[in-house]
Design brief:
There is one protein chain. The protein has 484 residues and is mainly alpha-helical. It is built from 17 helices and four strands. It starts with 6 loop residues before the first helix and ends with a helix.
Length: 484
């Protein structure tokens, strides 16, 4: 048949059946997670080299300087992934509170340094410790406390919600201690970085959604969140973030520019210059792009091309096809994270998986939406792909936690125990997860507790006694005898 006839439909049905068969395998979630995260990391290293090679060569004569730094952080992140996928759920639950305390302490320290520098007009540096707008530097090694705060909030929030259980229907259970701590994190992060605060908001929404909180709670939280975002936008006039007291509110200008963009002639040298250059890069890419490394936006035309706007470089050099591949990989990551959250039987694992997935996918959605014009610009990096050491390490650590949970799915745990890998593989890669449904055997009764009552012992003939019968207390005889 020239057009394939009925075989075309059979091929589609067979392909769907094969896909269902692959997804039905016990370790499908684990393999999907490794494949999507690994490909995104590989694409990220490639695009970092493409976006920074010209600038690095012009400044220092080494075109691979940024790639080398990012590759070092990628290796550290892979080690963090390896360590996190070996940890059990009880370790993550115990790490939630210390990690949150460390994150809050670093955020307070960062805000104090930044505030002190703006009040005195001097350098924000004390000894080897130096602070910038979003990061702390100790001896030249940078750390963004907001990235650690995301992971810490996932662990601590999942532990708190899992411990409360069915009592989450009461407002008092959500008000203590979840909402005050979340509000504090929003203020500490959002004062300098509104984009990271929106990522925290997506994380909290994912946690509450997985916990089964009522819709009215989401409505109230949405109203409070919008009011808080409006307040953070307003305080930019007082110097919040990169704003300067007495100058124009850059956060408000970004919102108004998104709602009613000015004419193109007014954007060439104004606040929307970066947005216009990103549009030019996307438009010049077409369907298949100009070719890897052949884009012109990295020739100092597009600011932050290797960080916030690296998706524009992907669109220019790899075209619509490359953008579709990246978006598809994030979609696979979202599906895998929600699949893990649905399949695990531990409430903490379910909540932590949903929160981490909402964080990673929500941050990617905010970044891509801002670059292509669907959302206002917020300045958040693209996970796995943008330049950033601490962000990449924390992201890979979160993926390692998801990998640990994927191996702990009931079907995956049974399959691993049925055909366990070699001992050296378990020592080098990951130990066997616990089997589902295994409980400790009840301890035998001690002499202090006494023996088991005779009425609770099972008869030796394995037959239940007739209803109403009692050992040694029969109700036989006539009524007169019973009265005596």
């Amino acid at each position: 048949m020239p057009d394939g006839g009925p075989w075309r439909g059979l091929d589609a049905v067979g392909g769907l059946a094969a896909l269902r068969g692959l997804l039905a395998r016990p370790l499908a979630s684990y393999h999907l997670l490794l494949a999507s995260a690994g490909l995104l990391l590989l694409i990220g290293l490639t695009m970092v080299f493409s976006a920074t090679s010209v600038r690095d060569y012009a400044q220092g004569g080494n075109a691979s300087a940024s790639l080398t730094k990012q590759a070092i952080f990628a290796v550290i992140g892979i080690v963090a992934f390896w360590a996190c996928q070996r940890l059990p759920a009880r370790t993550y639950r115990s790490l939630g509170r210390p990690a949150l305390a460390v994150a809050v302490g670093l955020l307070v320290l960062l805000n104090l340094f930044v505030a002190y520098g703006r009040l005195t007009g001097g350098a924000t540096k004390i000894g080897p410790l130096e602070a910038e707008l979003l990061g702390l530097y100790i001896g030249g090694i940078g750390l963004q406390p907001s990235e650690l705060a995301k992971f810490a909030l996932v662990l601590w929030g999942a532990h708190v919600l899992a411990r409360k259980g069915a009592s989450l229907g009461w407002w008092r259970e959500l008000a203590t201690p979840l909402f005050p701590v979340v509000g504090l994190m929003f203020v500490l992060v959002g004062y300098n970085d509104l984009g990271s605060m929106l990522c925290l908001l997506a994380l909290v929404v994912g946690l509450l959604w997985a916990a089964g909180v009522r819709l009215r709670v989401f409505a109230v939280l949405s109203a409070i969140g919008l009011a808080g975002i409006g307040l953070l936008v307003a305080v930019a006039s007082l110097g919040a973030g990169s704003g300067v007291r007495g100058e124009s509110n850059y956060r408000l200008e970004r919102l108004t520019m998104f709602v009613s963009p000015p004419p193109l002639e007014q954007c060439r040298d104004d606040l929307c210059y970066q947005m216009v250059q990103a549009r030019y890069a996307i438009a010049s890419g077409g369907w298949f792009g100009t070719g890897l490394g052949q884009g012109w936006s990295k020739w100092n035309w597009l600011p932050a091309a290797e960080n916030d706007f690296i998706f524009a470089v992907i669109a220019e050099e790899l075209g619509v096809v490359g953008c579709a591949v990246v978006v598809s990989l994030f979609a696979v990551l979202a599906y895998t994270g929600l699949r893990i959250a649905r399949r695990v039987d531990d409430p903490f694992r379910r909540l932590a998986a949903a929160g981490a997935t909402a964080w990673l996918v929500g941050q990617a959605f905010i970044n891509i939406g801002g670059v292509i014009g669907l959302l206002p610009l917020t300045g958040v990096p693209l996970p796995f792909i943008s330049v950033g050491g601490s962000a990449l390490v924390v992201t890979l650590a979160a993926v390692g936690m998801l990998a640990s949970f994927a191996r702990a799915e009931p079907d995956a745990a049974r399959a691993l125990h049925a055909r366990p890998p070699a001992r050296w593989v378990r020592l080098v890669w990951a130990p066997l997860p616990p089997l589902p449904g295994r409980r400790r055997r009840a301890a035998p009764p001690s002499d202090a507790r006494g023996t088991v009552p005779q009425a609770r012992r099972r008869r030796r003939d394995d037959q239940a006694a007739p209803r109403g019968a009692r050992d040694g207390r029969g109700r036989g005889g006539s009524a007169d005898e019973r009265r005596r």
